[in-house]
């Protein structure tokens, strides 16, 4: 029997607004992500996608509105509690954001050393091996970030977030700057991770192929406002010219 | 546009300076607050000490060697004219230990360490590595700023002591170009003019120099906003600001020491 808690959205955003230098970047955005759902936010550059995702993780403070993640309003909790919540959220940056002074293994062990201090070296190494295999780069542990291609950096970035076994994943333009084949591999990886770990994901993108592959549901953001919300197939049939411009 | 700038109220640059001072003060107070919060990042602190100290040693050694040598050679004729050549070791030691050693070493460190920290943290900022740390629930201020500032605070005084020793040794070599003195006698003469009241304040001000070098480098790096060009600007600005801060701290230290 499903309880109310089971049906509660993992992420619930209400009336989110953000202004930069007098420009309204987000205007009353309402958004919900359910458990194990892949939600894609589709929009053109400058539509407020990155601002939305940064507000969600607490990197930016919204001017108005509330962001509830797993029942906690992030505006109302202190820094330590926010950090506790952040350990349950993975964030894949556009460029991977790997620590360039550390090797791939050190990048992966870094969050473990801080949040899973009870783990011994053997266990940490086992988790690193496991997560590297999951992202399809089992032999790259000794490499430095400068030796990795764009696609490999994103895979390692993904591995670094998955190593803490998050309940929610936020992807900021996961396929931007990649060739078609690599972009497809990353999209497949996002899908595989969702299926394997039952992670709820928010994918910010303007890449329609990525949206098609990964989305359970798509919301379309235009000038800081959600203008449409449907499945990929539903939006593809839309008569709206602006929406159609993504599918042509 | 130039015309628009001329129409700006005259207090605008002052307002900007006050804003920067306020930002820096908040940054510094946050550092003070975070220093006492556990857990302390010992591994990173020791690594930063190694980077700050070990990698600055050759440059500090060469500069200190030249400093002692030049000071001795240039002072010798003046003292010889008054028949006071025996005062040369004492004069050199007082100059080096009280003023030149700490200030020159700190200036070298400002150029080498503050710029490195500014550029390193700046590039981490533009490539979102600091944000990545933040979203991984790792306090980047504690991991990056606290460790680096404490490392410079700890290592700069050690580098100053090292530089003082090298300078005195090179002064001994320079003295022997025209004279003949044993190293024991040279050091006896040099140290006879020094008291704890000369050595202690110079170490204390070196600690402040170290803190200034670290905190300014970190502040400039953390404030980087925009593209890679701003990383270069941050590194450059860190050197200039840290060098000015060193002279400013020195000026205050001299006033305080004078009262003792």
Defining key terms:
heterodimer; A: 248 residues; alpha/beta; Rossmann fold; six-stranded mixed β-sheet; four-stranded antiparallel β-sheet; 39% helix; B: mainly alpha; disordered N terminus
List the topology elements.
The complex is a heterodimer of chains A (248) and B (260).
Chain A: H1 4-7, E1 11-20, E2 23-33, E3 38-43, H2 49-56, E4 64-69, E5 72-73, H3 79-86, E6 89-92, H4 104-115, H5 121-134, H6 150-162, E7 168-172, H7 180-197, E8 200-205, H8 208-214, E9 217-222, E10 225-230, H9 232-236, H10 241-247
Parallel strand pairs in A: 3-8, 3-9, 6-7, 7-8
Antiparallel strand pairs in A: 1-2, 1-4, 4-5, 9-10
Helix pairs in contact in A: 4-6, 5-6, 7-8
Chain B: H1 2-6, H2 12-35, H3 42-53, H4 57-81, H5 88-126, H6 129-135, H7 140-178, H8 183-192, H9 196-222, H10 229-259
Helix pairs in contact in B: 3-7, 4-5, 4-7, 5-7, 5-8, 5-9, 5-10, 7-9, 9-10
Structure report:
The complex is a heterodimer of chains A (248) and B (260). Chain A is an alpha/beta fold and 248 residues long. Chain A has helices at 4-7, 49-56, 79-86, 104-115, 121-134, 150-162, 180-197, 208-214, 232-236, 241-247; strands at 11-20, 23-33, 38-43, 64-69, 72-73, 89-92, 168-172, 200-205, 217-222, 225-230. In chain A, a hairpin with a 2-residue loop joins strand 1 and strand 2. In chain A, helix 4 packs parallel to helix 6 (150-162), helix 5 (121-134) packs across helix 6 and helix 7 runs parallel beside helix 8 (208-214). Chain B contains 10 helices and no strands. Mean pLDDT of chain B is 90; it is low at 1-6. The chains are: A alpha/beta (248), B mainly alpha (260).
List SSEs of chain B in N-to-C order: HHHHHHHHHH
Major sheet summary line of chain A:
6 strands, mixed
What percentage of residues of chain B falls in helices of 4 or more residues?
A: over 70%
Based on helices, strands and strand pairing, what is the structural class of chain A? alpha/beta
Shape of chain A: globular
- Multimerization status: heterodimer
């Amino acid at each position: 029997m499903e309880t109310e808690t089971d049906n509660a959205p993992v992420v619930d955003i209400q009336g989110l607004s953000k202004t930069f230098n007098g420009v309204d970047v987000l205007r009353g955005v309402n958004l919900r992500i359910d458990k194990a759902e892949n939600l894609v936010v589709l929009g053109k550059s400058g539509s407020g996608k990155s601002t939305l995702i940064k507000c969600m993780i607490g990197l930016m403070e919204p001017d108005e509105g509330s962001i509830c993640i797993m029942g906690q309003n992030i505006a109302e909790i202190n820094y330590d509690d926010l950090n506790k919540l952040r350990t349950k959220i993975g964030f894949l940056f556009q460029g991977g954001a790997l620590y360039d002074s550390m090797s791939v293994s050190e990048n992966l062990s870094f969050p473990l050393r801080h949040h899973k201090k009870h783990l011994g070296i053997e266990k940490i190494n086992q988790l690193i091996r496991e997560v590297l295999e999951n992202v399809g780069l089992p032999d790259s542990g000794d490499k430095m970030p400068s030796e990795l291609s764009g696609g490999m950096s994103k895979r390692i970035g993904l591995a670094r977030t998955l190593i803490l076994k998050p309940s929610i994943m936020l992807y900021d333009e996961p396929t931007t700057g990649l060739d078609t084949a690599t972009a497809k591999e990353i999209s497949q990886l996002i899908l595989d991770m969702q299926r394997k770990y039952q992670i709820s994901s928010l994918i910010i993108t303007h890449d329609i192929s990525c949206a098609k592959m990964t989305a359970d549901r798509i919301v379309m953001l235009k000038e800081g406002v959600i203008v449409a919300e449907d499945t990929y197939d539903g939006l593809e049939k839309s008569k709206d010219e602006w929406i159609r411009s993504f599918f042509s | 546009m130039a015309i628009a700038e001329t129409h700006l109220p005259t207090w605008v640059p002052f307002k900007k300076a006050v804003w920067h001072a306020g930002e820096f003060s908040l940054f510094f107070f946050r550092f003070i607050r975070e220093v006492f919060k556990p857990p302390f990042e010992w591994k990173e602190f020791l690594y930063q000490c190694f980077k700050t100290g070990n990698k600055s040693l050759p440059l500090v050694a060469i500069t200190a060697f030249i400093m002692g040598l030049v000071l001795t050679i240039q002072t010798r004729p003046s003292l010889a004219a008054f028949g006071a050549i025996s005062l040369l070791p004492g004069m050199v030691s007082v100059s080096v230990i009280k003023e030149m050693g700490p200030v020159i070493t700190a200036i070298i460190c400002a150029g080498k360490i503050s710029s490195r920290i500014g550029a390193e943290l700046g590039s981490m900022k533009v490539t979102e590595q600091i944000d990545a740390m933040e979203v991984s629930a790792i306090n980047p201020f504690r991991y990056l700023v606290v460790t680096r500032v404490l490392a410079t605070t700890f290592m700069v005084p050690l580098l100053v002591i090292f530089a003082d020793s090298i300078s005195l040794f090179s002064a001994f070599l320079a003295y022997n170009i025209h004279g003949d003195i044993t190293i024991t006698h040279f050091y006896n003469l040099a140290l006879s003019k020094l008291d704890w009241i000369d050595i202690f304040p110079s170490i204390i001000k070196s600690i402040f120099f170290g803190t200034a070098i670290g905190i300014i480098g970190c502040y400039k790096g953390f404030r980087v906003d925009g593209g890679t060009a701003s990383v270069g600007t941050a590194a450059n600005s860190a050197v200039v600001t840290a060098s000015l801060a060193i002279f400013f701290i020195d000026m205050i230290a001299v006033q305080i020491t004078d009262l003792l």
